[in-house]
Amino acid sequence: MNITKLEQKYEGKAKKVFATSDPSFYIVEYKDDATAFNGLKKGTISGKGIINNKMSNLMFQLLEKNGVKTHFVEQLNDRETLVKAVSIVPLEIIIRNVAAGSFSKRYGVPEGTALKCPTLEFSLKNDELNDPLINDSHIIALGVATEKELAEISALAYKVNEVLKEFFAGIGVKLIDFKIEAGRLPDGSIVLADEISPDTCRFWDAKTNEKLDKDRFRRDMGGVEQAYQEMFRRITNV
Ligand code: TMP
Ligand code: ASP
């Protein structure tokens, strides 16, 4: 495709988004910057941008094969990917299979407790408000998404979980929880957007429960780069 990169449209904590010569497409560039606790903790995870770019793209392709529509078009190089231009629904869409993180804290459930069924929750993407938890009726009442979009987003999230849980089980990894984002195409349809990486998922080794994700950075556990590399090694060896 003969598309050139134009001006930066947006810079997030882990990625930049650029306009292109075709308004139907954006270019996403993955950075090594890492933040936690809404930007209070800052650092760099060397090589993270390359791993997250490649890993996300492999996950999006796997999901497409399984009937999930995504924004993915084509990987351009180590850090850049061509994606469909979407407007992001300002929600963090979180699925959990095992209690961890904020869920464990909020409900007083030890990390590692298996949940009887996957849970779905939403946070409003708003840094100033610290991404507050938001329920379905609030989302609809505030016009963040319509009832129909919310039903589509929820079905998409559970489907992503089924596909990813099985895939990661096959490479000896438990998918504890993850966050995804959804985007609207110009025709109003909903697609999976953003990224799927150790930044946005909790991955535990199936045998040892060793953490292979960004919790190593959030919690100053060390071995951060090695964890990202190990996840990438397992995914690309399959
Ligand atoms: P939590 O337990 O801190 O709510 O996180 C749930 C999942 O969402 C976990 O896999 C990490 C991911 N996540 C993000 O991708 N971005 C965020 O800003 C936060 C807080 C969590
Ligand atoms: N994206 C979060 C931040 O606000 C970090 C996290 O993933 O915990 O910095």
Topology:
Elements: E1 5-11, E2 15-20, E3 25-30, E4 33-36, E5 41-44, H1 48-65, E6 72-75, E7 80-84, E8 87-88, E9 91-98, H2 101-107, E10 114-124, E11 133-134, H3 136-141, H4 147-169, E12 173-184, E13 190-193, E14 201-205, H5 215-218, H6 224-237
Antiparallel strand pairs: 1-2, 2-3, 3-7, 4-5, 6-7, 8-12, 9-10, 9-12, 10-11, 12-13, 12-14
Helix pairs in contact: 1-6
Note down, in words, how this protein is organized.
- The protein is of the alpha+beta class.
- The protein has six helices and 14 strands.
- Strands 8, 9, 10, 11, 12, 13 and 14 form a seven-stranded antiparallel beta sheet that branches.
- Strand 6 and strand 7 form a beta hairpin.
- Helix 1 runs parallel beside helix 6.
- The model has no long low-confidence stretch (mean pLDDT 98).
- The chain binds thymidine-5'-phosphate and aspartic acid.
User: How many beta-strand segments?
Assistant: 14
Bound molecules: thymidine-5'-phosphate, aspartic acid
User: On the 0-100 scale, what is the average pLDDT?
Assistant: 98
Shape: globular
Query: Tally the helices: what do you get?
Result: 6
Rg (CA only): 17 Å
Task: Describe the structure concisely for a colleague.
By secondary structure, the protein is an alpha+beta fold. 30% of the residues lie in helices and 34% in strands.
Characteristics:
about 240 residues, alpha+beta, seven-stranded antiparallel β-sheet, five-stranded antiparallel β-sheet, 6 helices, about 30% helix, binds thymidine-5'-phosphate, binds aspartic acid
